[in-house]
Amino acid sequence: MRFWMGAALAAVMFAAPAKAEVSEIRFAQQFSMGYLQFNVMSHQKLLEKHAAALGVPDLKVSWRVFNGPDNMNDALLSKAVDVVSGGVPGLVTLWAKTAGTAQEVRGISAMGSSPILLNTRDPKVKSIKDLGPGNKIAMPAVKVAIQAIVLEMAAAQEWGDKNYDKLDELTMSLSPPDTTAGLLSGGSSFDSGFTIPPYQNQQLKNPAVHTILDSHDLLGDATTTVCWTSKAFHDENPKLYQALIAALKEASDIVMKDPRLAVTYYLEDVKSKMTVDEVVEIISDPRFKYEVTPRKTKFYADFMYRVGKTKRTPATWKDLYFPEIHDLNGG
To answer: Are residues 85 and 150 in the same domain?
Structure first.
C-alpha cells in the first residue's frame, strides 16, 4: 500500500505540466481589400471575445504589415508571426515545401475572392497575346505573387503548359501603390500593372488605361486570398485556434451583411483618401465574396505542380487545410 501511494505521488510530482496556450497571437497582414475580416476582427476585438469564452482570457492580438508572400512566409517559419495572410499561391508554395516536416504549414481558411485585373496604357495591346519585348508589367512580386501565377495560367492556356512562363521576362516587382502612380502618370519604365483592388479600379479612371486580363474570366468563382499557420501553432493552441475559426466566420458574416462598416474600418486602417462610397461601390460587384470556404484552391495547386513550380500537389483540397473547416463544401 505504501509502495503504491509512493509511486502515485512520484507520478504526480514528475508528470509533465500541461502546456498553457499562448497569451499573444501575432498576425502578418497585407493592407488590401482582400482581408476585410482582419479589419473587422481588429476593431471589434472578435478574437479576444471568442478566446475569452473558451477559457483563454486577456489575449493580446498584434498585427504586422507585410508586402508580398515571401517575407511573410519567412516570418512564419522563423516563428516571428503566427498567422499569415496572402494569395492562394503563397499557401500552396509553403505547404508543398513543408508537408510532413516539423515545419508543416496548412491553411486556416479562405478569406475572399475578387477579380484581379491586368491593366495597360499601351493602346496596341488588347490581350496578353499582344504583349511583347516593348512592354513591362509591374506586380507585387514576380514568380510568386498571385498575379504572377494568374499570368502564368493565362499564358499556359494561350500557348500550352510548356510556355507557361512565356511572359515572365516582362514582369517586375513593385508595390500596388507605386504601380498605380506610375501607370497613371505614364512616365515610368513600365506600361502595365497587375495589382489588386482598389488600385486596379483607380487606374481605370484614367481613359488611357484599359484591362487586358481579368482573373475571373480565367478562374471563375475562385478564392484569391487565404490565411495559414504552422501545424505546431495549431496543435499547441486548440482553444485559441477554435476561437480563431469562430472569429473569422463572424467577421466574414459582418463584412457581407454590413460592408459599409467593414469598409470604414479598412479605410481608417490604411489611411486612404478614398471615400466609403467609392470602396463600397467596388465590393458591391457580386464577384467579391468574403467567406471562409475555399473555392478552387486545389486548381492553383494542380497547375503549380503540373508546370514544375512545386514538387507535390494535394490529393484533395482538404490536404491544404486543417480539419476544422473540412465540413465545408470547399474546393
So the answer is: no
Answer yes or no: are the C-beta atoms of 34 and 225 closer than 8 Å. Answer: yes
Question: Hey, how many other C-beta atoms are within 10 angstroms of the C-beta on 326?
Answer: 11
Q: How far is CA 152 from CA 68, 142, 186, 213, 304, in A?
A: 18, 11, 25, 12, 9
Give me the CATH number covering residue 88: 3.40.190.10
Write down which residue in 198, 219, 240 finishes a domain.
Answer: 219
**Cα angle at 34 between 28 and 38, to 5 degrees?**
50
**Are 38 and 49 contacting, i.e. CB atoms less than 8 angstroms apart?**
no
Is the pLDDT confidence value at 11 over 50?
A: no
Total structural domains within the chain: 2
Q: 45: which 3 cell numbers?
A: 476585438
The answer to whether 196 and 176 have CB atoms below 8 angstroms apart is yes
Strand partners, 173: 139
Which residue type occupies 307? V
Where does a domain end: 219, 241, 259?
219
- On whether residue 270 sits in a domain, the answer given is yes
Q: How many CB atoms lie within 10 A of CB 203?
A: 25
Domain that residue 161 falls in: 117-219
Q: How far is CA 17 from the centre of its chain?
A: 36
Supply φ then ψ for residue 254, to 5 degrees: -65, -45
User: For 254-303, how does the pLDDT look when each residue is reduced to its tens digit (9 = 90+)?
Assistant: 999 999 999 999 999 999 889 999 999 999 999 999 999 999 999 999 99
Summary mean pLDDT of the chain: 92
319: phi then psi, degrees, rounded to nearest 5: -65, -25
Residue 19 pLDDT: 63
Nearest to 155 by CA among 181, 194, 198, 188: 194
Kind and range of the H or E run holding 228: strand 225-230
